[in-house]
Amino acid sequence: MKTFLSAIAVIAALQATPSLAQDAVFDAAAVTAACQGGGDSCLAAVQAAVAAIEASGGDATALNSQLGSLAGLLLELARTAPAATLAVFAQAMGAISDASTDPAQKAALNTLVSDLNSGTVPATSPFGAVDGLSTN
């Protein structure tokens, strides 16, 4: 029940995050490749993606939208990752949370960090942007 309520809270908090049907300013293919098996390369790839997002020069809305897309991608990858690597996904999600300027998004990301650290990956993605994210 607690996990279900956490998932509902995350979804509700991120409804304000605009859906991205735009090009990513980070290298989604590199994040995907690095994170498919989990491990330290995943954390490094996410940190590089956050740096690219921050360097893109967009306003706060664009920054948080891109961070939401990155978090959505990471959550999708965590679903198929070995359970032993979920702590790395939690660290990577924490790096995304640290960069967010939206309090509701930051709170939702921190909930995901807690879930991942407890070995739980939410069954639904609060980040609807993943499907429309171009990896070009």
Short account of what is shown:
The chain is mainly alpha-helical. It has six helices and no strands. 63% of the residues lie in helices and 0% in strands.
What would your notes on this structure say?
This protein has about 140 residues and is mostly helical. Helix 1 (about 1-15) runs antiparallel to helix 6 (about 105-115). It has helices at about 1-15, 30-35, 40-55, 60-80, 85-100, 105-115.
How many DSSP H or I helices? 6
Indicate the proportion of strand residues. Answer: under 5%
Mean pLDDT: 80
Computed over alpha carbons, the radius of gyration is 13 Å
How helical, in percent, are the residues? 55-70%
Low-confidence stretches: 4-21, 129-136
The biggest beta sheet reads:
none
Overall geometry: globular
Give the SSE order as H and E letters.
Answer: HHHHHH
By DSSP, the count of extended strands is 0
* CA distance, first residue to last residue: 39 Å
Helix vs. strand class: mainly alpha
Q: Which descriptors apply to this entry?
A:
globular; mainly alpha; 136 residues; 6 helices; 63% helix; disordered C terminus
Question: How is this fold's topology laid out?
Answer:
Layout: H1 2-14, H2 28-35, H3 40-55, H4 60-79, H5 86-99, H6 103-117
Helix pairs in contact: 1-6, 2-3, 2-4, 3-4, 3-5, 4-5, 5-6
